[in-house]
Design a protein that fits this description.
By secondary structure, the chain is an all-alpha fold. The protein contains two helices and no strands. The chain has a domain of 32 residues.
């Protein structure tokens, strides 16, 4: 006989949820986003000898 895909909604939802973990954000990151640090300006190199 053929394999028929029926009544596997829970299995599909579990698989989808597990695969989407890499896109998840923690609640603390959503509520209070991190401040972006601006790098210090680059000072020119003195060429005096």
């Amino acid at each position: 006989g053929k394999i028929v895909k029926t009544n596997d909604d829970v299995l599909d939802a579990t698989r989808y949820g597990y695969m989407m973990r890499r896109f998840a954000r923690m609640m603390r990151d959503i509520r209070k986003p991190k401040e972006k640090k601006i790098p210090a300006p680059i000072r020119p190199v003195r060429r005096g000898r």
